[in-house]
């Protein structure tokens, strides 16, 4: 499978007029970066001399970063705490080309902003410290979100559900969101959680990895045949337009339910440095390019190439349009003919 260069350029030009609504669990990622020169005298652990630190968007926020990186505007729904981490998260969202009026944040007085601190030394993660309280939304909060969703949905070309199972996407809210999107004829793409796996009915596509899909079905998925059977089984239950299962070093497999067609796309990653956020890149690029007019197969190819780029970077990285085009060209996936 190849993508015509003219089609790619056409999609690129449409991205700047594309808006994607992102709903899910917002997380603030913090990185403490330094070096290790000795072991602590207090315990057999390394002493990390911190030389740099940064905060960035994690969870569904990384989806927003990925949208920004390819020139797509985001409408963001999520929950933060009434705290410093929440202030920082909101500030970073606004710096990622999200307009103030498109930032629909539920600010909790009792639940802190989810903060994940990664300590990095010599380009390796030494440990991670998580600060979070997983509390589901109340019915009143869900109703408030749905009112705002109905007001914002008309501005969106597509909707991404970025589910990290941190309490924002409750079972009832998931079903209500999909109902609103279907009524407005907006495509819905889902990066799922196993605990909610069979709630995502009547969506455009779901993008689990093979571990998640296998866990949901109660068996391991290794071979192409096992993946194909799993896609058909899940699609029969959920009736999506398509199913995508990412497979690590084996790339990804995509199933078009309406045509009963499969695409098995091999991985393009030259070197895996950090898989953090690769799933966010897959669903973001796929959704944006389908919304810009690409076919399911073409958008899947772009998302696979994009994931291969970000796993070669540190942390929850993003990909640019230039990197995508260069990778497609270098891998022979770009048809230069018009």
From TrEMBL:
Gene Ontology MF term list: kinase activity
Alphabetical keyword list: Kinase, Transferase
InterPro entries on file: PfkB_dom, RfaE_dom_I, Ribokinase-like
Superkingdom, taxonomy of origin: Bacteria
Carbohydrate kinase PfkB domain mapped to chain residues: 18-320
Keyword Transferase in record: yes
Record PANTHER family: BIFUNCTIONAL PROTEIN HLDE
Protein name (Swiss-Prot/TrEMBL): D-glycero-beta-D-manno-heptose-7-phosphate kinase
